[in-house]
Design brief:
It is a single chain. Helix content is 46%, strand content 15%. The protein is of the alpha/beta class. The chain has a 5-stranded mixed sheet, with helices on both faces.
Length: 446
């Protein structure tokens, strides 16, 4: 695939990054959120609270050009924080600078660290500086972990609501399908380990339990700020996840080594779990060529599961960055002929669909209409793929029904495409048109 020069404002095409950090705050108990930015942006972002049923008010500090340049905006933010800081209601207040206040240098770092015992967390998530909403989740999670780590270093802290585990725990980094932590816990139990909190957490006190772990599993590898805090706390971090046969085997080996579990015990656990995963994969095969695009950070894990299910995966585009925590997944996929594209844009994903002409394209919302016009069935990654169990036995057969049903629907797309052919006068480039293919791929970054 050819290279395309990156422009000065080249960014992956996802929603406003504040969507992600706002969601993290809205999901946490006893946590308030204040947004500092343009009114139109704040109005649009309140969609998040309605979409996820948070039933919470999102705070907003209005401003104009005069208050912005005079410094009065910062004073207004501080006054809002002081007014909101009620320890009977909140453990923490998250203050988020959006694009304009960030570019103008509104100094949230000068806010007090706490007011009336309520922690104040100031972060910046401008669209021009944060690549994806998934990375904005990491910014807030990392800031909270850093604050909690400093508290734990000063003395005793609050225990988690469910109590302290009597076994060493594995903290899970990344938002997972609700059933996956349960499945991972079942895999860890024969190793003498327990699953710990999932970061981002749902409550402040869970941050202490997350830090007090034996090892961190970076299921979603783009959480670099959170990893920094865990490493500062002296915790080992393991990449990848227990997906498919090979992935589960390698992950159990890595967790066992990091936690000092005896080799014989790890092997016995693998002998118990892996045959069932292999059988589940064999019972739910996927046949067809697939390209995959997303911006959640779990794209490489899904691709591994698809490949082990029998799918011919040609391309994986992720809007998230390449990190060392996804290297084992990248190497595994590349060894099987899969092209991996980090920081992929809509244009990159579209070019891959033209290049490989898949039977199914797993796409972002913007990529869905692009696929259907080719005509290729398209499935939205976030709602239809990542919102399913992926780990262990449960994950091994979870994708097959929706994937195979979508591939089987391709004749309908072809019939509709033929019916409307010529309506717009455009010509799609296909797999059998080398000249056109090269012209399209010339705009793609590798």
């Amino acid at each position: 695939m050819s290279h395309r020069a990156a422009g000065p404002h080249d960014q992956p095409q996802t929603m406003c990054p504040a969507f992600g950090s706002l969601r993290v705050g809205l999901r946490m108990r006893r946590t308030a959120t204040i947004l500092v930015g343009s009114g139109c942006c704040v109005y649009g972002l309140t969609f998040t609270s309605h979409f996820y049923g948070a039933r919470r008010t999102v705070g907003y500090v209005p401003f104009d050009s005069e208050s912005l340049v005079s410094g009065r905006l910062f004073e207004d933010v501080r006054a809002a924080v002081e007014e909101l800081a009620d320890p009977e209601r909140y453990d923490a207040i998250v203050v988020t600078n959006l694009c304009v206040p960030t570019a103008s240098g509104v100094p949230l770092r000068l806010l007090p660290k706490a007011v009336n015992g309520v922690r104040i967390i100031g972060i910046e998530v401008p669209g021009f500086g944060v690549g994806t909403h998934a990375e904005a989740k990491d910014i807030l999670a990392g800031a909270m972990l850093g604050y909690a780590r400093a508290e734990a270093e000063q003395g005793p802290v609050q225990a988690p609501r469910q109590g302290v585990s009597d076994r060493p725990t594995v903290t899970l980094l990344g938002e997972l399908f609700p059933g996956d932590p349960v499945g991972i816990g079942n895999m860890l139990e024969p190793l003498g380990l327990a699953v710990g909190p999932m970061v981002p957490t749902r409550e402040w006190r869970e941050l202490y339990a997350a830090l007090d772990c034996a090892v961190v599993a970076a299921i979603h590898p783009h959480y670099r700020a959170a990893v920094h805090e865990f490493e500062a706390a002296g915790r080992a971090v393991v990449g990848s996840a227990p997906v498919g046969y090979d992935g589960t085997a390698a992950w159990l080996d890595a967790i066992g080594e990091a936690c000092g579990v005896a080799r014989a015990r790890v092997d016995a656990t693998k002998a118990r779990l892996l045959p069932a995963i292999r059988a589940a994969l064999a019972d739910a095969p996927i046949k067809g060529r697939i390209t995959l695009s997303g911006y959640e950070g779990s794209e490489l894990l899904v691709a591994r599961l698809l490949v082990e299910s029998g799918a011919d995966v040609r391309y994986v585009g992720t809007a998230c960055p390449r990190t060392r925590w996804s290297e084992v997944d990248r190497e595994w996929l590349v060894a099987r002929g899969v092209h991996i594209h980090y920081r992929a844009t809509l244009e990159d994903d579209e070019a891959a669909m033209h290049e490989f002409r898949p039977d199914l394209a797993i796409v972002t919302p913007a990529g869905n209409p692009k696929a259907k016009r080719m005509p290729i069935p398209g499935l939205y990654f976030t709602n239809l793929i990542s919102a399913r169990p992926l780990m262990g036995v449960a994950g091994a057969g979870s994708l097959s029904p929706v994937i195979n049903a979508a591939i089987a629907s391709r004749p309908r797309y072809q019939a509709m495409h033929a019916f409307f052919a010529g309506a717009e006068g455009d010509r799609e480039v296909g797999r059998d048109d080398p000249a056109g293919r090269d012209a399209v791929m010339g705009s793609a970054r590798c």
